[in-house]
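batch_manifest entry 22 of 60
target: Carbohydrate/pyrimidine kinase
source organism: Thermococcus onnurineus
requested by: lab member K.T.
priority: normal
notes from requester: please return tokens only, no post-processing; we will run our own comparison against the previous entry in this batch. if the run fails, retry once and flag.
--- input ---
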Amino acid sequence: MKCLLVGHIVIDIVVRGLKSEIRIGGGAYYSALALAKFCDVEILTSVGKDFPEKWLEELEEMGIKLNVVSSKTSTAYELRYLDGNTRTLRLLARAEQITEVPDKRYDMVILNPVANEIPPETVAAFKERTDFLAADVQGFIRKPRPGMVELIERKTSFLKGLKVLHADLSELPYLQNLQPEDVEVLLASNGPEPGRAYLRGREYIYRPVRVEVEESTGAGDVFLAAFSYFYKSCPFIQALKRANAFTGLFLERRSFDFSMEDVDELAMRVKVERSEDAS
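--- output ---
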């Protein structure tokens, strides 16, 4: 299966208390790592000369193909954690927008913007490149200017017709002109708390399994990628349970060093029910 991830890979400065570290990040990065277990993965991104060459080489050593749009600078964020699930986010710099689309088809394309780098025209072009287009809302509704990250209300009708769309529950009010029935599947996660999932407009509530979490960076990106992959071959509820379990194991271990047997075992503990049946 050929899978393309689209979005900026990022220089992340992660701060916890008095300690900080600099590492690679971004939605496309975390989604690519999740899918590398199953697919031939390619990332379409934009970075500058300030992006560590070592990080790019490590991705290629993992078998991930890179399609890089050159930029004067790379996108960089400061993530300051208050606890495992709470953080502040500050945009430090932003790479070029992604406007060129590869002239070939893919089995799956996931759009993972982090700083409003994917314009509506690029989304429309990718609808012609795949029968399975998924996206994460977060980068479409962030102001693309340096400083503390602010969310903006935006007309998002250009996302209609997607196979899968992921958002945090707190992001849904910022989406104008878009209803759950406008996409095949809408995933609305809520960290470790119960989330909502919509299949052709029909609402379900899912309850993730509680795991020990040191930090939640990449959780939504892994969840979207895992669900999209499982949904290609599994019924909706099974895909939702597996994606929750896959994400929980990633958060617990901060790696993908686990088996599908581990995923299926944990998935049996994930609760999914129609919203009208939920107590």
